[in-house]
Amino acid sequence: SVVILDFGSQFTRLITRRFRELGAYSVILPGTAPLERILQERPQGIVLSGGPSSVYDDRAPRPAPGVLDLDVPILGVCYGMQYLAQQAGGDVKRAGKREYGKADLTRYGGQLFAGIQGEFVAWMSHSDSVTRLPQGYEVVAETEDTPVTAIENAQTRRYGVQFHPEVVHTPKGGQLLANFLEICGVTRDWTAEHIIDELVEDVRTQVGSGKVLLAISGGVDSSTLGLLLARAVGEQLTAVFIDHGLLRLGEREQVEAALRPLGVNLITVDARAEFMGALDGVSDPEQKRKIIGREFIRAFEREARGLGHFDFLAQGTLYPDVIESAGGQHGDKSGAANIKSHHNVGGLPDDLNFKLVEPFRTLFKDEVREIARLLGLPEHIRMRHPFPGPGLAIRCLGAISEEKMDILRRVDDIFISGLREFGLYDGCSQALAILTPIQSVGVMGDERTYSYTAALRAVTTDDFMTAEWARLPYEFLATMSNRIVNQVHEINRVVYDITGKPPATIEWE
Ligand code: XMP
């Protein structure tokens, strides 16, 4: 394995992700983890991550004594490289200005860059730089602003890069990390099946003989989690699907049909009346989200009490959710602004007696999809676009009602089925229909109409943090518009959202 010592960089998880993509097993430990703990992992290589600290700060986190003496290759990234250089007798100084963003390597070579050709764009984020090279090291890459951008000591197998090879903005970073694995002699046979075994093992250790309650939303994450937990703890799991009345057409039935045959002990709760009651007359988007989050928790508590004692609440939280909802709830230091309160992470009352089980906290969506495939989740759920916890409520602008939900459900179904029918579904990252409160004049047959406007939105994105509107064919949009106004009489106008994120968000509320 490769042990990654984390010194607080927001990109540390990406290093494991890249290694996983390369088929190598790695594990993240706190930067200051004791030597014995590190040795337990039988490391064949060590990565010292980046971090916000400066190596000449007394309080800067440091690896335990002995780590640098281990006879395995060590790669220092950013702060990690500065630490390596300083410990070997080099100098690190505050650069005149912070270097942030893409930089071209003006030259590169050495073992880490073996086999890499052409332009090398490196993503930088640092204010300290190595200013004097330690003994035994040589500079193997430089940029215009940073003469010491990568260093290596081939004898002791110590390597350092000032940039972040793990982020997508360093396109050839994966090759560099692959070279490091090669130097470490790590076999690259780590697959999603191994990840499943590991997750199952972790869940069993955490849960013991406790009882687990899982909220199933119908999306790929919680459904996959249901399958994983069923495999890990079987009968100790009760999965609860709350029908809050904000679901898409036929969704509840689809989820039941997918999970029950695969051994998930699934209970469906009809809480439509409670949610509708609580949302009655509420038009503020954040307010709606908060109410839905709160009602979710209430419904679970109610259900849990009815079913006896539960020790754990399982959640399909993914790594990107953890970043976007930051605010330090789980000790993440990314400091990303909280744009919308995602209720699957926040919102749990303090007096809740459950402990959390969140096996996917370190995973990304595509990894969960791969796990889902291996666990047998049907394709239509596995490859489903994400659907927000608050459901159609945040796609029906302003105060919602049964009637409006029903209109929106039908519009959504026409649009989503249409995308599938025309083979456009998988090309979009997410597609949605929005019911606006705008009423406008139209003419149908010979009659004047005064009805609602529906908006369609489809986006492409890698990470949902930024997105482009999908360039759907005009012909397709025309067909959708026709179908919608013909089949949903409450709608007489259809518009397509041509705004990216930013400045807009994907959801309208
Ligand atoms: P926005 O609208 O912020 O959406 O651009 C980004 C992604 O997050 C989803 N989303 C949510 N998911 N609970 C969720 O589980 C929420 O409250 C929530 N709000 C937005 C949205 O569907 C998109 O995929």
TrEMBL record:
Keywords: ATP-binding, Glutamine amidotransferase, GMP biosynthesis, Ligase, Nucleotide-binding, Purine biosynthesis. It is an enzyme of class 6 (ligase). It catalyses: XMP + L-glutamine + ATP + H2O = GMP + L-glutamate + AMP + diphosphate + 2 H(+). ATP binds at S217, G218, G219, V220, D221, S222, S223. SUPFAM superfamilies: Adenine nucleotide alpha hydrolases-like, Class I glutamine amidotransferase-like, GMP synthetase C-terminal dimerisation domain. The active site is at C78, H164, E166. This is GMP synthase [glutamine-hydrolyzing]. The lineage of its organism: Bacteria, Thermotogati, Deinococcota, Deinococci, Deinococcales.
